[in-house]
Amino acid sequence: MVGNHKIKDLPFKYDDLNGISEQVNKWHHDTHYAGYVNKRNEVELELEKVDKSKSNVNWSLFRALKDRETFNANGQILHEIYWDVLGGNGEMDENLEIAKKIKSDFGSIEKWREDFIASAKAAIGWSVLALDLSDGKLKHFIGDAHNQGGVWGAIPIIAMDMYEHAYYHDYGPDRAKYIEAYLKNIDWKKVNQRYKKLTKLIL
């Protein structure tokens, strides 16, 4: 059934994160994320009745709806991944499978962290740690919009929102402090569970 996507609850309380405020979590989840879910439903319902015979590359209602379909779908999915891996203390057990994979693909945890921070600083919209199915390696990809910068066949493991609404209330223009706060809240057991689940499905 189209147009039936549900708004998921946060997997933690609004005030549970260290360095990301209760107010930001409320705005981010209840307004921004919920808006993407609702608009995704609306777009899907409109696509059911749009006149496809008028589809055109220059402009058509069908083209506009298809563009907003990916924008809102990715807005929903990336936000859900963003929160799904938070709620921890940021400490990584290097015996976890994801830690071993990070060390294998990036050379060390320190080099991964350096690349994670650099990628986040470079992103206008999203910085994503993904498993690239074309070579089986973990990589960071960045996007300036929800539906820009993604790589076909790469599965997100961690998705970090770098839009200003995610941090400006807490840190103003200091993106580096927000990135550090995000890192301190990652629950690496959840990341590991996500990685293991994905690898069982696709590798």
Tell me what the structure shows.
The chain starts with 21 loop residues before the first helix and ends with a helix. It folds into two domains: 22-84, Helix Hairpins (Orthogonal Bundle), CATH 1.10.287; 97-202, Iron/manganese superoxide dismutase, C-terminal domain (minor pseudopilin epsh fold), CATH 3.55.40.20. It is mainly alpha-helical. A three-stranded antiparallel sheet has the order 2-1-3. The radius of gyration is 18 Å and the shape is globular. Helices cover 52% and strands 11% of the residues. Helix 1 runs antiparallel to helix 2 (61-84).
Give a nutshell description of this structure.
This protein is mainly alpha-helical.
**Structure class:** mainly alpha
How many structurally independent domains? 2
CATH superfamily of the largest domain: Iron/manganese superoxide dismutase, C-terminal domain
Largest sheet: 3 strands, antiparallel
Strand content range: 5-15%
Uncertain runs are: none
Work out the oligomeric state of the chains in this entry: single chain
Radius of gyration from the alpha-carbon trace, in angstroms: 18 Å
